[in-house]
Amino acid sequence: METNWELIAKCLSGEASQEEQDLLANWRSQDIENEKTYQEMYQIWHSKKQSNDVFDSHAAFKKLTHRIQSESSLTVSHKSAQSSDKKAITFKKYYQFAAAVVGIMLIATGIWWRVNQSLPAQNQTIIAKKIEIIEKVNPKGQKLQLRLPDNSRVWLNSESKISYPSHFEGDKREIVLEGEAFFEVAHNPQKPFVIKTPNAKVQVLGTSFNVRAYSDEKNIETVVVTGKVKMTESSQEENFTELTPNEKGTLSLQNSKIDKKKVKAEDYIAWKDGVLRFKNESLSQIIKQLERWYGVTITITNPIVLDCHLTGDFKNESLETILIYMEKAIGIQFEINQKEIKIKGRGCK
Fold first, then answer.
1. pLDDT tens-digit series, residues 23-50
2. Triad 142, 277, 135: Cα angle to 5°
3. By CB neighbour count within 10 A (0-12 exposed, 13-18 middle, 19+ buried), where does 92 fall?
4. Strands (E), 171-301
5. Distance between CA atoms of residues 327 and 320, nearest Å
6. pLDDT (tens digit, 9 = 90+) per residue, 149-201?
7. How far is CA 6 from CA 43, 68, 89, 96, in A?
8. pTM
9. What is the rounded distance in angstroms from the CA atom of residue 329 to the CA atom of residue 348?
């Protein structure tokens, strides 16, 4: 399948509709090469530089432009045998590819200049030393399914990032998560599966469970669907809490204690099947989820409405549909201006 460079650019710039975001998510999940292309574009677009890594924008630029040129040349070759109308369409597609190349050139050039201005010369040569670490980044409004090297399956939620090695060595399978993900871990008693978050560790042998560890939230949550999980605070690994199916462990970042309680696990993993589920949740909690889910920014004109609570299930619904439901249920009013949402109201009904 051809790469839709215009669609990728629209999603990265926040200008894509929900239908276009779903189209891109489907394209990413169809082939590992599609996902690699998207991640390279994401790196160039955001120029996200980490402390121990230097992103090689030149290499990414050359690789991406080569792909675009390859696709465009194939298109021109294929269409040349067609009618004059199809030739005109071919030229238009080639023009779009050329425009994409120019856009990538501008982005990569700007990133190259900033990197070279901010990094010491001796650090600019360590480009290929981190190829063993794979990083998947999901911006707001997008979700992703992937398989790890051990054949474990992962559903990565919006505004989340996962890092893992190209193959697992040693006596454990260790990954790093920021945000939220659901895991179906391949069973291997000889090599435990360990998820590291900024403040907690979750260890399993083979099971399915959900981990929620967003940096802007006060708690880290683990909910078990099948199997058994050990949850620990990062600095106190000897003190762990064991979780079994339909149990939730909540680590408070304020006191470093883990609270365990019985829950209905399916309520916490509905998101991976395209369902937004609210169980008597406050509007302040719901707004965070809507912002991540749809890639929008929501502002509140009257803070009193943040204490309103809502219950409901929404499967693959538009944001406007959910806002209309909220309008009827708790009496809010809303305005939509592309990716900016304004909510106002006098309080709860």
1. 887 788 777 777 778 777 777 765 543 4
2. 30
3. exposed
4. 173-184, 193-196, 200-204, 208-213, 219-226, 229-233, 240-243, 247-252, 258-262, 275-282, 297-300
5. 10
6. 999 999 999 999 999 998 898 889 999 999 999 999 998 888 999 999 988 99
7. 16, 12, 16, 8
8. 0.62
9. 9
pLDDT value, residue 170: 84
Q: Does the pLDDT of residue 311 top 90, yes or no?
A: yes
pLDDT at position 227 is 93
Nearest to 308 by CA among 285, 337, 336, 288: 285
Q: Could you count the other beta carbons within 10 Å of the beta carbon of residue 145?
A: 14
Name, in order, each residue with C-beta under 8 angstroms of 162's C-beta and a sequence gap of 6 or more: 135, 136, 146, 154, 156, 175, 176, 177, 178, 181
- Strands 340-344 and 297-300 turn out to be parallel
Phi, psi values for residue 85, rounded to 5°: -65, -40
Query: Are residues 143 and 155 in contact, defined by beta-carbon separation less than 8 angstroms?
Result: yes
Q: How far apart are CA 323 and CA 4, in angstroms?
A: 31
DSSP string over 57-124:
HHHHHHHHHHHHHHHHHHHHHHHTTS-HHHHHHHHHHHHHHHHHHHHHHHHHHHHHHHHHHHS-GGGG
Across all residues in the chain, what is the average pLDDT?
78
> N- to C-terminal Cα distance for the chain?
51
| Residue 50, Cβ density class (10 Å: 0-12 exposed, 13-18 middle, ≥19 buried) | exposed
CA angle 253, 288, 321 (to 5 degrees): 155
Q: For position 54, what pLDDT does the model report?
A: 43
Question: Which one is predicted more confidently, 210 or 124?
Answer: 210
Rounded to 5 degrees, φ, ψ at 92 are: -65, -40
Look up residue 185 and give its DSSP letter: P
